[in-house]
Amino acid sequence: MDHIEMPRDDIGAKLGMWVFIFTEILLFGGLFLVYAVMRHRYSADFHQASLQLNIFIGALNTVVLLISSMTVAMSVTAVQKKDNRKATILLCITLICAVIFLIDKYFEWGHKISMMLYPGTELMQSLKHGYILFFSLYFFMTGLHMLHLVIGAVILVIALTKIRMGLITDEHYVLLENGGLYWHLVDLIWIFLFPLLYLVT
Amino acid sequence: MNSEVQHITEYSLYGKVLVGLLVLTTFTILIPWLDLTAFTALIALVLASTKAGIVMTYFMHLKMEYILLKILVIMVLAIYISVILLTFSDYIFR
Fold it and tell me: What is the ipTM for the molecules in this complex?
């Protein structure tokens, strides 16, 4: 049976992803706003509390995500140029970067959790109010960001599979583009999270 | 509408953008050591916004997109910044 070409709307598909990205911007934006107000109110406590965070790992994560953003953007170019091999390699690098980020986060969170420094412990409840706020915001915002990162990675795995199966081609690659857009959003959020949480003075 | 004009961005452009972003990241990390107190947060935000702008323009392909999309992005950012300004203009005077 001949393959029937369903009507497609790639421009609509991409616009839909952008509208979703707008909602995500407002979601994280709201969290940043809460952070901004609380930081203004408890600036000394926030500064003290942020000293607990490891700037090196935070910076490493920033670099890793920036590189992954570049490779996923490059993978779109590769597909456009019919270079599936390069697209596969680039997407694999992106996914490796995602794993590196998650491993870093495992060490960061693991360290804090081993020190009983997470929401709900007796230690946390005994600390100053500003401290409690900082760590609640830290865990919630980086946790929500991590969730988005995992979702983005899953989407890119699906895109990679479809490239290997020949379902994403130089004439039909909007899924990869949208996955890339979502991944860039994950990067954007971290670009703001890093200085606001780790580099407080 | 399922075929648009293909804008194929060269790999090298993406490479240059990454270098620019890494330079800005380095500045972001070094800024606290300059000890500019109150201005540190402001400069950090300016740097982060610049990086975000670069990511949106080149990685997210906005530069090559149609004008409506660019307007929508600016509109959403304007809405968000308005919310920030409104919130702070209330909070600061409490």
Answer: 0.91
Residue B35: domain span: 1-60
Confidence of residue B5 (pLDDT cuts 50, 70, 90): low
What are the pLDDT digits (tens) for A45-94?
A: 998 899 989 999 999 999 999 999 999 999 999 999 999 999 999 999 99
Pair A70, B22: CB distance under 8 Å = no
Range in A14-23, A43-52, B35-44 with the lowest mean pLDDT: B35-44
Cβ under 8 Å to A: B residues 59-88:
59-61, 69, 72-73, 76-77, 79-80, 83-84, 87-88
Residue A6 domain-assigned (yes or no): no
The answer to whether residues B20 and B50 belong to one domain is yes
| Domain total of chain B | 2
Pair B20, B45 in one domain: yes
Q: Is B33 on the interface with A (CB under 8 A)?
A: no
Give exposure, B7-20, as e/b (b: 16+ Cβ within 10 Å).
eebeeeebeebbee
How many other CB atoms sit within 10 Å of the CB of residue B74?
A: 11
